[in-house]
Amino acid sequence: MIQINLLPGAKKSKKSGGGGFSINFAAIGAAISSKVKDKYLAAAVITTAVALVVMALLFTTQRTRESSVRDAEAVQVRDSTQMARVLRDRAMAQAKRDSVYLQLAIIRAIDEERFVWPHIMEEVSRALPVYTWLQSLAYSGSAQGLRPAASIRTPPPDTGKVRRARREIEIPRDTIRIQMVGRTVDLQAFTRFMRSLEDSPFLENVTLRQSIPAILNGREHYVFTLDLQYTRPDTMLLRREPFTPTANGGDQ
Fold first, then answer.
1. What is the CATH number of domain 115-155+171-233?
2. Cα 142 to Cα 179: distance, rounded to the nearest angstrom
3. What gap in Å lies between CA 73 and CA 64, rounded to an integer?
4. Burial, 185: exposed, middle or buried (Cβ in 10 Å; 0-12, 13-18, 19+)?
5. What angle (nearest 5°) sits at the alpha carbon of residue 13, between those of residues 10 and 15?
6. Global pTM value
7. Domain boundaries, the chain
8. Which of 180, 165, 176 is nearest to 230 (CA)?
9. How many CB atoms lie within 10 A of CB 228?
10. Most-buried pick from 64, 85, 123, 232 (CB within 10 A)?
11. Read out DSSP for 149-186?
């Protein structure tokens, strides 16, 4: 086969093994170089073309990244909105729980303070021995009811921003002190009387302030003064009995 080189200065291409179509880029570059006389103009054109291709690739890449970022932002906003709703519902539930707990605590505190004197009178009368009698039994110290249970407030709800231990509601309780003045003719019975008062679940800190010998109707006896404190036992130790109305409208 006879081959004719139509491009002067180009080398002859080697025969392809299969006789297929092939492009000689070197020959094309040489032909263009022979046609273009200004090398700098060619470099500028090539640089501009490459810059445009790079800009197109960067634009496409940025658009793809922007789309993925917007999708991620939408997911995060949806999750944040859902979490805020959950935290708001949780705070509302905790506020309702604390309100109910506060009401129950107030009711329990008021119920515990209803029968202070009946408990004191019952314990004293149960422990009082023979040949011993009381002249006075009254409160001492500050008056009761200075810190009512209705004045307590619930702790702030947990917003979820700061994890803190749940603070229990504290019920204000007044310290009830009692002073007892009486007479006795038997010191051993009086000692048993003090021991019985100390063993009571409603009384504590039984202290003998003074014991003075005296004469009454020609008989020697002792005038004593006791200081003690009322305590609130566990509710499991309390015995509650219902009041049954009688036929005449009273209670028994």
1. 3.30.70.2830
2. 13
3. 14
4. middle
5. 165
6. 0.49
7. 24-112, 115-155+171-233
8. 176
9. 24
10. 123
11. GGG--PPPP--SSS--PPPPPPPP---EEEEEEEEES-
